[in-house]
Amino acid sequence: MRSLSKVSVQLTPAQKHLYATETQVNFRLIAKLVATRSRRILTAADLVSADLQAELAEYSQFVELSYDAMPVETVYQKMDVLSRPNFPLEQSDAVLETKLLKSLHGRVANLHAFLAYRPSKKQLVLAISGTHNIKQVFQDLRAIRKPYRQGKGCAVHTGFWKLYKGIKEAAMESLHDTLQPLSQDVQEIVITGHSMGGAVGSLLALDLLLNQAELLGGRRLKLIFYGAPRVGNAKLAELWSDATQKYRSEHGEGSLTECLVKGYNDGVPSLPPYKLGYRHVTKSQLYSVGGRLYHIPPSECEHGLFDISEDAKAAGTAVLYPRGGHNYYSERDWERIMRRLAWLVDNMDRYPDWEKRYYKEVIGPEQAWQRKIAGSKPKYA
Prior knowledge:
This protein has helices at 13-20, 28-34, 50-66, 72-77, 79-82, 93-96, 134-140, 158-179, 196-211, 213-216, 234-251, 310-314, 334-347, 354-366, 368-374, and strands at 99-105, 112-118, 123-128, 145-147, 155-157, 188-194, 220-226, 256-263, 285-289, 292-296. By secondary structure, it is α/β, with parallel strands linked by helices. It has an eight-stranded mixed beta sheet with strand order 1-2-3-6-7-8-9-10, with helices on both faces. Strand 7 (220-226), helix 11 and strand 8 form a beta-alpha-beta unit. Helix 1 (13-20) crosses helix 15, helix 7 crosses helix 8 and helix 8 (158-179) packs across helix 9. The longest helix is centred in the middle third of the chain and has 22 residues, at 158-179.
């Protein structure tokens, strides 16, 4: 039985143009070299509900902004412009309804995170950035483990621990300062992150569960990570399991939700390698492929690639990003969003005719494939 990941997909002109102009690293080669393929074939019975998939797509909108391609304070100030068609936040409804509470920068490698409040959900969202500068890359590569002193035999990735320690104080203080005045208005806390941000988010969540449970106040806690690497050894994973189960036993089974979303052809969740003694802390994982999300059985949580059954593929949707990779979670082109934001940062306040330039220099090249195949004008013309 062949999987979607093994089938040769005929690329559309738009997809050919997308991949020809792709510049960010998507770790597809790492996936080929390091990721192991599970023998368990995912079927239609493993598909997540449409509601859950939509909810996870909402959290990814916050993660995109955490990269600070445009300072998050500026994003919220210019939300009306940025949410227009052909602008970076044109499909970011979850973010549009929120209020920015705090922007955080860690002392180590300038790691960025921000805290926002969603009144309609009575939800506090803390989003943590993935790697986006050379100093953070250096920390990513510090894969020698060091003792995690709150659990016997536990060990943690040295670089991720360093990054977490650099932002811990700011994150804890911001949560405390926010929850005090909003204590009656916050029913749920979401910690989310992409890539290295997911690793740091895991360490923050574990710290809260072990040492700051009173700060959570028994509220529902959601830990949602995308394309995150492994953060420690098997003993650390056991400590995580004990801490999360304790919270559920004290506050109800639905009080804590954890989820790691792994993408097809994304090699990052397979790093650092299993053979080096690293393990994922959460066994609650989903696999993203072909525009759908599948539950990964806990026994298969260390694998990075899965075959998809024919019945599941038949129930699938149009595949927007068939090659997968690290920057296409929630069926969104994160590179395009970052590129648009970065251009606006450099030019929006620089030129009186910035909008005309934006369409010419950003949107025009993005839609060049249309003119190439049909001699058509760009959609904005």
